What does this fold into?
Amino acid sequence: MNSPNLIILYVKNPAESAAFYRSLLGRDPVAEAPNFVAFALDGGFTLGLWRLSKVAPQPSATGSRAEIAFMVPGENGVSTLYQDWQKRQLPIAQELTDLDFGPTFVVLDPDGHRLRVCEPDK
It folds into this structure.
């Protein structure tokens, strides 16, 4: 069976994005090259950061139409992470709020990719 295991974000500067994700994830990349950086994630996934100017074939559109979600378990887990990321002065696109699926907020990475934090499904 084929299962997805790699998320690739197109970035302007892989080194800058790697520094952001190194701090956010609390881990070092497993691969680093001038045009591509990869982080091993829990659950068998890898996050790749690929220099946009080197992507082949080039994407036909720009803009963010997707999110990477961090599901944070535990009572007040989302609000605790929100406070931490506020202290780090990450750009907040959506303040901490309650939606149909519970507490959530969204921050942006250096390229404007949306990073949503929410609780796991119950």
